[in-house]
């Protein structure tokens, strides 16, 4: 791998992070100014929680893909629509994370307490009426909705064809999230096709393909670039999700910002779990099948981790990630874009496939 390309990716992600943070602050301060400057301390407090979630540095890959595709397709880097679209994609991600945390009952995100947990604790501390968990979840849903509203506001400023791609990406994300919830409710033995469909809608679509197509559209080349974006984005999106699955099962919580084993405890449908079910003993399968159910026992997550290691499921997922990475890199090299952005996309693929958070 070209070290210079990796250095460019890291530098770009840092620069994009700063631009995204500044733009998010501007949007919040402009749109919520009367409330931020008013006398209602409760509103100020909840908006501070929203601001903190939106500004806490994630990987910023989605806005980076918008910017890279636009530049690679010959677009003007100073076009303000590119920053608006990039930040809209990041705020869509903020919306999805806040709601996802509610759906998953997550206690931590990016190393800090989730919004619904914070407000449930506050409800208890103040002795308020009603049920604390429901109160916290209600507040979080509202803050997620606010992030989506701010994303939509930004997309109203860009070309209509690009905006249409954004809202198509939103629809696919919602369908993918629904399928993920339904799959978890039905249990893990649903087959690799279900996990793959969820990944294409929920991860590949709005993490890689959608942002790339959005950037290409802003440069006037979305139709031409669509097959190349799919050839790169789909395998990379799958590799991203597979790495996410491994991090969810084995990652360092200090680096991931989330408790280790959370996905296993919830019985999420993943390729990792599917392979473990196929390769495990009858006793192994019985344990894996009760993950996420009321039949779970203390220590099941740790035992599941051992089963997935011993059965070779973890190693098989690592091998599959490498195969998908090679496909994505090959597709990047064939894309009709500038050579420096081909190199950047290859570097980004390596960072994504082998990330630790």
Question: If you had to describe this structure to a student in words, what would you say it looks like?
Answer:
It is built from 17 helices and two strands. With 357 residues, the chain is an all-alpha fold. It has two domains: 1-68 and 78-158, Farnesyl Diphosphate Synthase (Orthogonal Bundle); 160-357, Orthogonal Bundle (Farnesyl Diphosphate Synthase), CATH 1.10.600.10. It has a two-stranded antiparallel ribbon with strand order 1-2. The chain starts with a helix and ends with a helix.
Helices and strands in order:
Blueprint: H1 3-31, H2 33-36, H3 41-55, H4 61-72, H5 80-104, E1 108-109, E2 112-113, H6 115-126, H7 132-155, H8 160-186, H9 192-218, H10 222-250, H11 253-256, H12 262-265, H13 271-279, H14 282-289, H15 300-310, H16 313-334, H17 339-353
Antiparallel strand pairs: 1-2
Helix pairs in contact: 1-5, 1-17, 3-7, 4-5, 4-9, 4-17, 5-7, 5-8, 5-9, 6-7, 8-9, 9-10, 10-16, 13-14, 13-16, 16-17
């Amino acid at each position: 791998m070209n070290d210079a390309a990796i250095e460019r990716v890291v530098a770009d992600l840092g620069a994009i992070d700063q631009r995204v943070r500044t733009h998010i602050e501007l949007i919040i301060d402009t749109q919520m100014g009367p409330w931020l400057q008013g006398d209602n301390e409760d509103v100020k407090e909840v908006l501070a929680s929203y601001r903190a979630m939106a500004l806490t540095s994630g990987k910023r890959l989605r806005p980076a893909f918008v910017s890279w595709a636009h530049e690679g397709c010959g677009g003007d880097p100073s076009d303000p629509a590119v920053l608006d679209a990039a930040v809209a994609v990041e705020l869509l991600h903020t919306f999805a994370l806040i709601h996802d945390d509610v759906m998953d009952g997550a206690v931590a995100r990016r190393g800090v307490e989730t919004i619904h947990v914070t407000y449930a604790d506050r409800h208890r501390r103040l002795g308020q009426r009603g049920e604390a968990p429901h109160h916290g979840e209600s507040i979080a849903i509202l803050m997620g909705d606010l992030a989506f509203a701010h994303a939509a506001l930004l997309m109203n400023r860009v070309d209509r064809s690009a905006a249409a791609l954004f809202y198509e990406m939103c629809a696919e994300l919602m369908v993918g999230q629904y399928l993920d919830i339904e799959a978890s409710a039905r249990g893990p033995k649903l087959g690799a096709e279900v996990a793959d469909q969820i990944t294409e809608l929920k991860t590949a679509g709005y993490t890689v393909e959608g942002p790339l197509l959005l950037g290409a559209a802003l440069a006037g080349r979305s139709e031409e670039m669509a097959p190349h974006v799919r050839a790169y984005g789909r395998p990379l999106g799958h590799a991203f999700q597979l790495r996410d699955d491994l991090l969810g099962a084995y990652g360092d919580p200090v680096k991931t910002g989330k408790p280790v084993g959370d996905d296993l405890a919830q019985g999420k449908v993943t390729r990792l779990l599917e392979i473990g079910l196929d390769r495990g003993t009858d006793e192994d399968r019985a344990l894996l099948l009760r993950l996420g159910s009321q039949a779970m026992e203390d220590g099941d997550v740790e035992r599941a981790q051992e089963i997935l290691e011993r059965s070779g499921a973890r190693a098989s997922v690592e091998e599959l990630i490498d195969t998908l990475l090679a496909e994505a890199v090959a597709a990047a090299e064939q894309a009709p874009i500038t050579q420096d952005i081909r190199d950047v996309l290859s570097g980004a693929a390596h960072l994504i496939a082998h990330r630790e958070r």
